[in-house]
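Example S7 (structure tokens).
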């Protein structure tokens, strides 16, 4: 290992957490039962770091993102920003949302068709009473790659391409000069030719502004291209996390392996049986065991952990920079 690699890894390990979830639980009532949408999550995002949160639809990613934004209150655990627990008073939340901004997946749905680009980007600064509105809007559009910004002021969303609309949404977030962006499937609705441009923009914003980001996605290919670290979520809990290259080149959890198998370069496709279980009825043992290809193939039995997979609960993963997986089989063969 070179001296440069050691220095980089030390910096990664000691990077202070800017936004954190600590033992976060979020529950909802569903047909008389409690749905555990987020069921014990530890997650940290450092200054200038991009973390990808990956998993199937219904795994709890969006609920976790909404809770980090202060839009949902946790049942237990806490959200921390800058080392302090999130205050849910109206004034404190308003100030917090200047620092942590949301970028939604559907720019068409995010933008009011009756509002011009200028009005869309100016909405946040007006809510927060910021001076020099025109200068803020122009600067935000320019940072988002819409130049010269004045050329876009009076345009309406239907006059823009999909990529331009997404840039307007990003400009609306940048207008408040946030420290963290939470991007929910930021390129899912865009053509393949435009996806790379938006991902490059997010990386450039990180370099130029020191922005941190949580990118919520079902696409591990996107995570590979943009993230420093990846957290894989299944049924309300993070089941594997670590540096993106380490996790995606040598995944230890069978669920991560299955998600990766759909990528074109994967040598073998893993087809998971069934759907994710009902979050009101999370199974005992490993929550993935009913769909696990390693258990079904007999590999877990070969190393003597099949009974543990079906009956023994796994510890909640801590928020650490190194690679880790919540899996009895992975622990047995490591």
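Recovered sequence:
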């Amino acid at each position: 290992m070179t001296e440069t690699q050691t220095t980089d890894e030390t910096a990664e390990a000691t990077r202070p957490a800017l936004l954190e979830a600590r033992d976060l639980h979020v529950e909802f009532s569903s047909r008389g039962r409690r749905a555990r949408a987020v069921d014990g999550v530890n997650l940290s995002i450092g200054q200038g770091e991009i973390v990808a949160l990956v998993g199937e639809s219904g795994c709890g990613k969006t609920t976790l993102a909404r809770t980090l934004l202060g839009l949902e209150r946790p049942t237990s655990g806490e959200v921390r920003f800058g080392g302090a627990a999130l205050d849910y008073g109206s004034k404190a939340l308003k100030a917090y949302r200047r620092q942590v901004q949301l970028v939604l997946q559907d720019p068409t749905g995010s933008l009011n068709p009756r509002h011009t680009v200028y009005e869309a980007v100016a909405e946040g600064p007006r809510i927060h009473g910021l001076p020099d509105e025109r200068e803020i809007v122009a600067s935000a559009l320019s940072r988002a790659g819409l130049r010269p910004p004045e050329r876009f002021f009076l345009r309406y969303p239907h006059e823009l391409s999909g990529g331009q609309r997404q840039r307007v949404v990003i400009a609306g977030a940048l207008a408040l000069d946030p420290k963290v962006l939470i991007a929910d499937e930021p390129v899912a609705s865009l053509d393949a030719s435009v996806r790379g441009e938006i991902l490059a923009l997010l990386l450039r914003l990180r370099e130029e502004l020191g922005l941190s980001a949580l990118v919520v996605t079902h696409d591990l290919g996107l995570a590979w291209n943009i993230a420093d670290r990846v957290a894989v979520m299944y049924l309300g809990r993070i089941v594997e996390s670590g540096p993106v290259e380490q996790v995606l080149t040598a995944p230890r959890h069978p669920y991560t392996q299955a998600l990766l198998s759909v990528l074109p370069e994967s040598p073998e496709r893993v087809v998971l049986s069934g759907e994710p279980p009902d979050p009101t009825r999370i199974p005992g043992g490993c929550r993935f065991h009913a769909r696990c290809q390693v258990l079904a193939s007999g590999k877990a039995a070969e190393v003597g952990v099949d009974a543990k997979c079906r009956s023994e609960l796994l510890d909640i993963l801590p928020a650490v920079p190194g690679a880790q997986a919540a899996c009895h089989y992975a622990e047995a063969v490591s």
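Notes on this example. Residues 275 and 330 are 23 Å apart (CA to CA).
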